[in-house]
């Protein structure tokens, strides 16, 4: 078991929630606005970052920005607590010890699929890059520290560029730090893509895909630190004119194609794109079979036909992961039957409440 208990206090629409969980999937249903997604968002806060809504901590408080919230959970034998005091950023405590958020990545892997991700293949590269980095972080927890080191050095370099500092001595150390961290980021990303492709089963319901790092502008898929450092040095003039760093792994993109025709994901139908995205999420969970995994699927059932929905439930029931799903009605989860716990969520002026359903 990974997530044994979940306690929410003043988080989003929940004045209070106490859940005891086991290894079965949890099917959470209720009308729109009832608070189903808020449960999944709270679980996503057991990973580094801002959760799957990318919301600032003060915006997650039920009573507004001047109030706070708290999440408590047990993950195997570990007690985890994360909270945000009124108007402040959040803190994380594991086993009574204050830790950085990146420590969460080593405790549990949290994977999610939310409706906003349906546009992954048609939106700007930034969204695909975030998706790729979440996948990579789930497989390689040091990825978060590398990303922080790279971003910190890049912000300092960008400050020099904006201030029109011309002395190369100011840049060398920062570019060296960016090059080392950036090369490691790229190697991690490629290793993650290799692991996901190896974990796909290539079934008809959720097709396998060929995944690749796209270089974007400036060879953003370069795994060699010396090459990155040389490119950064050579780009200083252009970067100074732009006021920011125009080359590096922060400009990378994720490519995906599938099927015998090697169809690019961006040119596929909406249904095919959804199936492809689900395939990657399921493969991500499968690739982590030796790690504790929490799989969050928000409103996923409503966008699948009956056969594909049944196939999804079969797959998640067989995965070595804990799964939480949401949908608007119990009929969407009928095929799960006794393989899952079913929770009915409603909301009143007092907030959201949940009761066991069947």
Describe the structure.
By secondary structure, the protein is of the alpha/beta class. The protein is 35% helix and 24% strand. It has helices at residues 36-44, 125-139, 143-162, 168-199, 225-234, 236-242, 270-287, 306-318, and strands at residues 3-11, 14-20, 26-29, 69-75, 78-84, 91-94, 97-99, 109-113, 209-214, 253-258, 263-264, 293-297, 322-327, 341-348, 351-356. It has a 6-stranded antiparallel beta sheet with strand order 2-1-4-5-6-7. α3 (143-162) crosses α6 (236-242). The two termini are 22 Å apart. The mean pLDDT is 92.
List its traits.
358 residues, alpha/beta, Glutathione S-transferase Yfyf (Class Pi), Chain A, domain 2, six-stranded antiparallel sheet, six-stranded mixed sheet, 8 helices, 15 strands, 35% helix, globular
Helices and strands in order:
Elements: E1 3-11, E2 14-20, E3 26-29, H1 36-44, E4 69-75, E5 78-84, E6 91-94, E7 97-99, E8 109-113, H2 125-139, H3 143-162, H4 168-199, E9 209-214, H5 225-234, H6 236-242, E10 253-258, E11 263-264, H7 270-287, E12 293-297, H8 306-318, E13 322-327, E14 341-348, E15 351-356
Parallel strand pairs: 3-13, 3-14, 8-12, 12-13
Antiparallel strand pairs: 1-2, 1-4, 4-5, 5-6, 6-7, 9-10, 10-11, 14-15
Helix pairs in contact: 2-4, 3-4, 3-6, 4-5, 4-7
Fold-level CATH name of the domain at 125-269:
Glutathione S-transferase Yfyf (Class Pi), Chain A, domain 2
CATH architecture of the domain at 125-269: Up-down Bundle
Specify Rg, calculated over alpha carbons.
22 Å
Q: Determine the structural class based on helices, strands and strand pairing.
A: alpha/beta
- Can you tell me the CATH class of the domain at 125-269? Mainly Alpha
Structure annotation, total helices: 8
Sketch the major β-sheet: 6 strands, antiparallel
Q: Could you name the CATH homologous superfamily of the domain at 125-269?
A: RecF/RecN/SMC, N-terminal domain
- Work out the helicity level: 25-40%
- Describe the global form: globular
Average the pLDDT over all residues and give the rounded result.
92
């Amino acid at each position: 078991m990974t997530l044994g208990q979940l306690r929410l206090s003043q988080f989003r629409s929940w004045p209070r929630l106490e859940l005891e969980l086991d290894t079965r999937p949890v099917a959470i249903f209720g009308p729109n606005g009832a608070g189903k997604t808020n449960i999944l968002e709270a679980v996503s806060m057991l990973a580094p970052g801002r959760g799957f809504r990318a919301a600032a901590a003060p915006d997650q408080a039920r009573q507004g920005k001047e109030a706070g919230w708290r999440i408590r959970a047990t993950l195997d034998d570990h007690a985890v607590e994360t909270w945000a005091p009124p108007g402040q950023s959040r803190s994380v405590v594991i086993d009574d010890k204050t830790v950085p958020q990146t420590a969460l990545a080593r405790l549990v892997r949290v994977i999610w699929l939310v409706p906003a991700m349906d546009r992954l293949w048609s939106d700007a590269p930034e969204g695909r890059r975030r998706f790729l980095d979440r996948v990579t972080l789930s497989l390689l927890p040091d990825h978060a520290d590398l990303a922080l080191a790279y971003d910190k050095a890049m912000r300092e370099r960008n400050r020099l560029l904006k201030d029109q500092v011309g002395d190369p001595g100011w840049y060398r150390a920062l570019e060296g730090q960016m090059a080392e961290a950036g090369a490691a980021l790229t190697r991690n990303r490629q290793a993650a893509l290799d692991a996901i492709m190896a974990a796909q089963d290539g079934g008809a319901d959720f097709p396998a895909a060929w995944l690749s790092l796209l270089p974007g502008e400036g060879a953003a898929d370069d795994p060699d630190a010396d090459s990155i450092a040389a490119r950064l040095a050579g780009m200083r003039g252009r970067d100074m004119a732009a006021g920011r760093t125009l080359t590096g792994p922060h400009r990378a993109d994720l490519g995906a194609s599938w099927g015998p025709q090697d169809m690019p994901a961006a040119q596929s139908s909406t249904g095919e794109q959804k199936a492809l995205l689900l395939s990657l999420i399921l493969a991500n969970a499968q690739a982590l079979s030796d790690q504790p995994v929490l799989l969050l699927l928000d409103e996923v059932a409503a966008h699948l036909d009956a056969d594909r929905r049944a196939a999804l439930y079969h797959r998640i029931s067989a995965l070595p992961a804990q799964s939480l799903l949401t949908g608007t009605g119990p009929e969407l989860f009928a095929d799960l039957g006794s393989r899952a716990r079913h929770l009915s969520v409603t909301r009143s002026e007092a907030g959201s409440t949940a009761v066991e359903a069947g």
